Amino acid sequence: MKLFQKLLVATASVGLIAPITAQASDVINLQGMNDYSRSKKSSTKKHFDSKTFVNEDVATLKKSEQELEILQNNFEAGSFSETTTASFSADMAIGDEDTAFGRGKVNALYGFQIDLNTSFTGEDSLDISLDAGNGGNGLSELDLNEASAGDDSLAVDGISYTFPVAGATVFVGDNTDGSALYNTACVYGGPSNNLDDCGNGSSALGSGSGTAAGASYEFADGFTAAIGYTGDGSSTSGLMTAEGYDSYGAQVSYSADLFAASVTYGKVEAAGNKDRNYLGLNGYFAPSETGIVPSISAGYEVGEGQGLADTYQWFVGLQWDEAGPGTLGTAVGTVGATTDTNPDAVGGDGALLMYEAFYSYALNDGVTITPLVYFKEAPKTYTGDDDLIGLMLKTSFSF
Description:
Blueprint lengths: L1 H26 L2 H14 L8 H25 L8 E14 L8 E12 L6 E9 L21 E11 L2 E7 L36 E8 L4 E9 L14 E10 L3 E10 L7 E10 L9 E11 L2 E16 L2 E9 L3 E2 L13 E10 L4 E11 L9 E12 L1
Antiparallel strand pairs: 1-2, 1-17, 2-3, 3-4, 4-5, 5-6, 6-7, 7-8, 8-9, 9-10, 10-11, 11-12, 12-13, 12-14, 13-15, 15-16, 16-17
């Protein structure tokens, strides 16, 4: 019995060892390794010194750098251009406008904007602006970055390409102003939507929508000339046709060290071939040392058209750029172009005057707080409350 057990164990052991030996002989040729080792020892003798491992480390490091550079080049081929920059801004506002249609309705709004800029030659610029926000629901007087397509939706708020041609600067774009290259003489920078156009909102083709193009040329001694065009490129009527609505304009400006002036002309087509011609005059004085004396900006615009009532618009703004730690500004003017037909009749036309004051204070490089108060003195044409009062607080973030 014991002999049978020993034979059984021996047979099993041989059965297990045989396949392992076969696999080892296939994978590792021990004799071949011994022969190779003896040949290396006889043919080459390697001497180790203090630089041996250092040289090997340097070679390895160089190889790693080359591989990293290859990977980096492959990555940059599909990434942003080195000349592409992006800037981000967000606005938050809270306030109320006391009107006949809604008293004491405090609104809180926001706006968000992304600006992308790319240059391909160093002299050109591709500019794209993306906006989002809910500023259309209330406090419409406040200037917020918001989407034009609707509240709480991201929309392209403008795309343009600017490039040099024979000493002039030319641009083409969409959903932007035809006056993008104008140099209107105004240094007032209020946060409201109405008085920040410096009194020439109509002559400057400030609709901000449609296909736009323009050019400017800077002469010697501070003179600049510019032209602009805006048309409805998405319309079936087409650009520059009798059926489509187009706007044309031109401007001549002069800038010196302490003052500047500009003359702006605009022709705006409307339905029924009732086109208006606008002429705007702007100027400013900016002292060399900001302090007690503020900068003074002023603008006046008139409009006329065949079979249409004449319009007018004016504005005066004062701004102290160093009023303590911030900027103080105040302005008065009309809210948009106003017709002068029967201004005192109820239901007729009349000027809506607006007075505003703001103080802009920078908490740091990226956060600015701007309180705004304004007063609208309505004409007798208003059937409800004559006067409107607005109180708003705007916080701007840039990053």
